[in-house]
Amino acid sequence: MNLLSLLERLPGSYAGPTQPEPGPHGLIGVGEGTLAAHLAATVLPGTLVRSGTQFVVSSADAAQAARDYADLAEVAGAAVRRVSTGGSVADVDVLVPGGVTTTYHAAQYLAYASGHADQAQDAERLLADLRDRCAPQIGEGNPARDLAWTLWGRTPLLLAAEGAEALPHAWQALLARIGKTLAVPLLGDPLVIVTGAFEAQHEKGDAKVALLLGDTDPVLGVVREVLESRIDEVLHVPYPEGVNPEQPGGYAAQLSLWYFGAWVAAYLAERYGLEVGDPPMLARAQAVLAGDADPEALTAPEGDEDVRRTDLVRDWADDASDEVDGPDYDEDLDEDDPGDR
Predict the structure, then answer these.
(1) Interacting residues of 279 by C-beta distance below 8 A, sequence separation 6+
(2) Which is nearest to 168 in space by CA: 38, 263, 30, 56?
(3) What is the share, in percent, of the chain residues with pLDDT greater than 70?
(4) pTM above the 0.85 mark?
(5) Which residue of 44, 169, 174, 290 could cross-link 261, Cys pair, CB 3.0 to 4.6 Å?
(6) Are 295 and 288 in contact (CB under 8 A)?
């Protein structure tokens, strides 16, 4: 099943445990579980606990780190619930699907297991509404497709208000993994960054668009004013309509904006004419880290795949050869040692 079909079927597809686990609760995420843990931090703010339940969310490629955290929690006195996409039977209490949708399934489990079934159900409602507006058959007025067109050919800068730092993390991962596009999250104090980042080289603001993710606050208001004079465009990507007013920027709202980002990234990949799904190199790297493949697989191309880096100097030279007065370039640069690059 391709990723677009998976995204369309995702709302309501969670089929894992729904019973709450004894508190207090702690949460650690590694590997594929890192993003799910970050999004679920709104309902599980604790990291490590000495009693109650310690959740360790991981994947087979990060099994050793997950095992170490689980052992520490057990020694401290907590019961451990190991949530993973795979691995040995002893390392998995709750199995979740691997890939892009790991975030949804693991996060929903964490919401239910921490006693927040209401927020998990709110998330399903928001995701279903987004699905109805973003699915491939929706042409005119599809917000995900429209935003993907806006991002095409540009570098997104990602910002969010305090307390929603998981959103830039989520969108950077989605735009890279699905959309094959580098996005830059502006973390820490955004005022420090935006007031100085473009002053020495003004052209660095060209072909960039800032996305203000989720709710805005006074700081982001000032940031927007600054950026509007330094980059191409600033856009607000709010939480979807229908968010529970009692948790305006809570778990359900943040998971739904993750889901919207997945649709945007999928349409951006299509716009670039690229495969909508995981890069083959990612799967091979994860298999090597999980101990399921020979490390040589990382450098051995599969089929027609070319895993080499682009030869930028030669590409520039080829482009310049068509110009009558094109810039000169040094042939020696074309023959340099790759280790010197």
Answers:
(1) 177, 180
(2) 38
(3) 87
(4) yes
(5) 174
(6) yes
Among residues 127, 97, 107, the alpha carbon closest in space to that of 37 is found at: 107
Phi-psi region of 26 (alpha: psi -120 to 50; beta: other; left: phi over 0): beta
Closest alpha carbon to 261 in 46, 138, 100: 100
137: enclosing H helix or E strand: none
Selection from 261, 105, 247 nearest residue 185 by Cα: 261
CATH code for the domain defined by 21-114: 3.40.50.10920
- What pLDDT does residue 241 have? 93
Asked if residues 127 and 10 have their Cβ atoms less than 8 Å apart, the reply is yes
Report residue 173 as tokens.
Answer: 């991962």
Cβ count within 10 A of residue 25: 23
Domain boundaries, given as residue ranges, for the chain = 21-114, 143-271
CA–centroid distance for 78 within its chain:
30
Q: Report pLDDT for 148.
A: 98
Tokens of 271: 């716009």
CA 103/CA 32 separation, integer angstroms: 8
CA atoms of 154 and 207, how far apart (whole Å)? 5
Assess if CATH 3.40.50.10490 describes domain 143-271. Answer: yes
Euclidean distance between CA atoms 193 and 205, whole angstroms? 13
Q: What is the pLDDT of residues 144-180, one digit of tens each?
A: 999 999 999 999 999 999 999 999 999 999 999 999 9
In order, the DSSP letters of 16-72 are S--SPPPSSEEEEE-TTHHHHHHHHTTT------SSSEEEEEE-GGGHHHHHHHHHH
pLDDT on residue 150: 97
Question: What is the longest distance spanned by two Cα atoms in the chain?
Answer: 74
CB 76 within 8 A of CB 50: yes
* Residue 13 burial (10 A CB sphere; 0-12, 13-18, 19+): middle
Q: Do domains 21-114 and 143-271 have the same CATH topology?
A: yes
